[in-house]
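Lab meeting, action items carried over

1. Structure of the two-component assembly. Owner: GW. Status: complete.
Input record:
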Amino acid sequence: MTEFVFLYRGGDRPESPEEGQQIMQKWMGWLKSLADRGNIIDRGQPLERTGKIVAANKTVTDGPFAEAKDVVGGYTLIRARDVSEAAELAKGCPALERGGRVEVRPVMKLDM
Amino acid sequence: MNDRFDHLFRRESGRITATITRIFGPHRLALAEDVVQEAFCRALEVWPFRGVPDNPPAWLMTTARNCALDALRRERTAQSSAWQLDNSLQSEWTLGPALDELFAPQAVQDDLLRLMFSCCHPRLSESAQVALILHILCGFSVAEIADAFLSSHAAIEKRITRAKSLLSATHAVFDVSAAEDFAGRLPSVLRALYLLFNEGYHGASPAAIRCELCDEAIRLTALLLAHPFGIIPATHALAALMALISARLPARTDASGELVALADQDRTKWDRARIAEGLRFLDLAAQGVEVSPYHVEAAIAAVHARAARAQDTDWRLIVSFYDLLMRIRPSPVVALNRAIAISQAEGPRRGLEELRAHVDAKSLPRYLFYSAALGEMELSLGKREDARVHFQSARDLARNDLERSFIDRRLRACETGGTGESL
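Predicted assembly:
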């Protein structure tokens, strides 16, 4: 078993409250199904769209002001057999239905 | 998910929009809508990760409050000149507590009423009022309203945009504490809720959307009944009408989803609790001298509700109620329904006479129920070919598959000589 991080990027906003609730319920259903199958190590957290950027010269600026489709909106820590199983799990993510993407990144193994 | 969670966002959107609109003023309606959308987006992003909060409506309202606070601060930083707020909201020191007061539960109830009355501005057409109520108070998107009214997205968008700009130009929400103003606007509000309910019950859109429209109309009418100026006999009569008619919704389609005519509905499926509630409202509606059209329509619905079987229906009583309705609010549809009732009470020959004498076909050009009624009466008289022609024109006017399929069954009845159904 290997650990993965799902990074959720982009995704259109809902057009109506009803649609918003439907998307939210899909998210809850998807995360629950992953948890029921033992694939979740940590549900993770949603992230604010912007914060601060600290540069090499230690200047602090507001940001990042990435394009909406590239902004990371949250993450989840996943347990899966291998990267292809992890990618298969990510296919159920509701963000995909609204133009979003899931980045599946293996956590580096430290015990070589 | 339980019932209380179904459509939670939609239900809460009206409450929150109403409150924010009072704080920002109707001229900032667009800003209020942004704040509300922001609150829902946060819920959508946060709840899947941290779980649904113990009190979702309170969470949403608090989040909207914080978003509003941010918007207020940004506005002030931008030194907007058009800012019209209570002085207490101008200072950072009092901003928080002042907003707490504005978001208190009782204030929110009144906010919904204020906005509902604002939406029924006399310069707006009835259809614009209904669309605006659905959009602002019930959280329906333009696309959802277009679906509900079988209208184009562009047409509804235009209607709502124009209505909103008129609302924005008023600069103050309707004052529901002024008894005279309240009483003056109340008939328009009742009418808009009646139309909203009717669109739900008789409308052309798919059944699921229509049930939601009925539920919204019932919910908003209950708000009126909770206000000391709103609780008048006509409001009780409207609430009675909605309860008695919506009680039939579970029987209106059969297991395969086909429309079932009133005469053929499985009456054991009617919602008894709603009927009891409707009859109780009707009693309360009788405590006054006024007889509104809602009284009469509710009384007709009560006759149907009280008949255990279709053949027990007291059609003569129903005819007398339609006579009354023709006096207080005559319309081609009322005349048509009266002729149908006469056909039931005194036979199809009399029904046809009434229909030909008192219903102007030209005033109901796109109304399939007119052709369908003619078809039923001719069929009852055994004139199968005449009936077939009328059902065929009704079929051409059908607005959805359910209606088309219903008329198709009547067309087949013309071939086999069956009788008995009517929409």
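2. GW to write a short summary for the group page. Key points so far: The CA atoms of residues 398 and 404 of chain B lie 5 Å apart. The radius of gyration of chain B is 24 Å.
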